[in-house]
Amino acid sequence: MELKKKLLNGEHVVGTQITMINNPQLAFILKNLGFDYLFIDCEHGGFSYKEVSGLTAMCRALSMGVLVRPPQADRQNIQIYADMGIDGLIIPMVESADTMKDVVSYARYAPLGVRGVAQGPVTDFRGVSDIRDLLKEVNEEFLIIAQIESKQGVENCDEILSVPGVDAVFFGMMDLSVSYGKPGKVEDPVLKDKVKKVIACAKEHNIICGYHFFGRHDLSWGLEHGIQLISWRSDISAMQSSYKSDLSFIKNQL
Fold first, then answer.
1. What gap in Å lies between CA 227 and CA 190, rounded to an integer?
2. What percentage of the chain exceeds 70 in pLDDT?
3. In sequence order, what are the beta bridge partners of 144?
4. I want to staple 66 with a disulfide (CB 3.0 to 4.6 A). Which of 33, 76, 86, 159 is the partner?
5. Distance between CA atoms of residues 35 and 66, nearest Å
6. Which residues are catalytic?
7. Cα 25–146–217 angle (5° rounding)?
């Protein structure tokens, strides 16, 4: 669980999103390629708890980070995913401070929250002698990330990012484009201005910024604006892009 430490040290981390492929060997491939973390999308992906647990176990064995986006920010999902030993959670469609107050409470052990203590990867596999030290350590290491992806989320970003225990902000650009009446136009200047507004707010609150990049063309823009947590493509888009390019080349030779 090194992701948060690296980010707090001012480092950049690069991960990729999986929505469709459930195979722990994928983590092995991606780690060998040099990715720092795996972003498991359970909001749009059809992964079961068992499947996420298997992917997480492989990542832990490889010293690779794991972030999970749950389908919703309820106590059950937060508790179950957190207990698998992941590095943190990306909470979708955050529009109010109250949502993040609940998330922080569910994801942090006492005295910072009400997370239940259970046997499993988080508690039993570390071999600590004092449970108090362990709970303090996990509280410090666990990343809680608010995903802003609507007009209301942008408007309420100051209150959302002011919640104690929120570590980072992430952007859902597709939903943000829909919310502002510009479906799919993720690079529209209006949307870029909204993202810059949230990034400025994050900097005021010492909040880490994350962004899902759709390609090389907007990476420079993100780095210039302080993006540290980089999400690069997905299993679906990586395959589509690679195969489309290869097939075009092949067919042009026929």
1. 19
2. 97
3. 89
4. 86
5. 11
6. 44
7. 65
